Amino acid sequence: MPIHDWPEGERPRERLLARGPAALSDAELLALFLGSGTGGRDAVQTARELLGAHGPLRTLLDRNAGELTRLPGLGPARSCTLVAGLELAKRHLAARLEQGEPACTHPALVGRFLQQHLRARPQEVFSVLFLDNQHRLLACEDLFHGTINAAAVYPREVVRRALVLNAAAVIVSHNHPSGDPEPSQADEQLTRELQHALDLVDVRLLDHFVVGEGTPVSFAERGLLSQRQSRLFR
């Protein structure tokens, strides 16, 4: 039965308008992006089959547009729409940090932004958020790229970029492609070295996020930063 023949209270679009997007399942949200089904199936059935064969949702949407195009039920137009939607969400989070929402008062927002930015990377990437003296975002830069389990990070380069951008504070982050966001001893040692190097030029290290599956781990929330620095992020 086509979706437009379903009872009004069961149609994804009408349910979203009445109850908000959180009321919809992954398949229903995906169906709204697809717009219509394929092979005689409605959009919800097509979405369920996509998720069943190529999901769950995070696994499906971590693919790039070229990979999505090759999946049944998608094509260039739909794949580009999905990837564009994800990029819009990422830019929306960045805009909130750029336009007056201080990072120091929104650690959960920072964590979501960094999760979107780093989670799907197949290799370790070390990223830095450079902030002004009101802790608004000046720039997000991927400074170092590594392998599937390591990236060489040079504190001197982080300091150099902070000075070039006239940053008053930074938040650093990196991903664990294994999916385990638990910080390693090497991560903790690197954070201490970064704090020391940044202290020398009066730039504050507000936090270090490790991105994997689930919620990113915050060094500040774990108490893994010095008392002076971690207090600034609360």
Tertiary shape? elongated
Provide the domain count: 2
State the CATH topology of the largest domain: Cytidine Deaminase, domain 2
Reported for the largest beta sheet, the result is: 5 strands, mixed
Structure class: alpha+beta
Q: Any low-confidence stretches, pLDDT <50, length ≥5?
A: 229-234
Q: Averaged pLDDT, please?
A: 85
Strands in their spatial order, largest beta sheet: 2-1-3-4-5
Helix content: 40-55%
Corresponding CATH superfamily of the largest domain: Cytidine Deaminase, domain 2
Order of helices and strands: HHHHHHHEEHEHEEHH
- State the name of the first-level CATH class of the largest domain: Alpha Beta
Q: Round the Cα radius of gyration to an integer and report it.
A: 21 Å
Q: Terminal Cα separation, in Å?
A: 53 Å
Level-2 CATH architecture of the largest domain: 3-Layer(aba) Sandwich
Number of strands: 5
The portion of residues forming beta strands comes to 5-15%
SS summary, helix count: 11
Which features would summarize this protein structure in a list?
elongated; 234 residues; 5 strands; Cytidine Deaminase, domain 2; alpha+beta; disordered C terminus
